[in-house]
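Q: Here's a chain of 203 amino acids. Please give me its 3D structure as tokens.
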Amino acid sequence: MKKLLAAAVITVMMFALCLSASATVNIDRLSINKNTLGEMAGNDIVDDTLTIAKGDKVYILGWVFNAESNLKEVVYTLDGVTKKCEDNYMDRPGLAAAIGHAGLENLEAHAGIGTNEAAMEILGLDTLDDGTYAMSIKAIYEDGSEELYKEFTLVVGTGVKAEDPAPAEPEPENPSTADASVIAVAAVCCIALAGIAAAKKIK
């Protein structure tokens, strides 16, 4: 029984090590309104959904490693539109060897996402109105390639976008005013004609 348990533990550990070695975009902290390692407990995405209140800020911590190219930037998309994250990176010495890429230490430069004292902010989320958005986070490398970290749903506030106000309808023309104008014009014309007729009789 002990041998079987030991074999199972070894298998799980080997699987975890393989995942670490193959992982290239690793965001191990994603928190709402918390931006230091000590405050950030883990990942606030639950069942592929991140729920925030209006005005909340979202921060991430982690690292990116590509055996072919250095990291250029981390970006996110919102309903298909690419947007910027905070320009907040650090070098990660020792990362290459730790994930099985010894000899590629030059690729450790700029590989850290945020710092332990100041995580990277996903800029602009605090300005969003109520609504539900399709969101993703991905890494862009210096050679132009990119790699997706995760796609998920972002729910802000009620999750329901406010309806656009209906266009104001033009005010109906006031028929009584229009009729009065016509009557007044007609009356002036009648008076004028009467004056002309009277003038002719006098002559």
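Q: Can you summarize the key feature?
A: The two ends are 138 Å apart (CA to CA).
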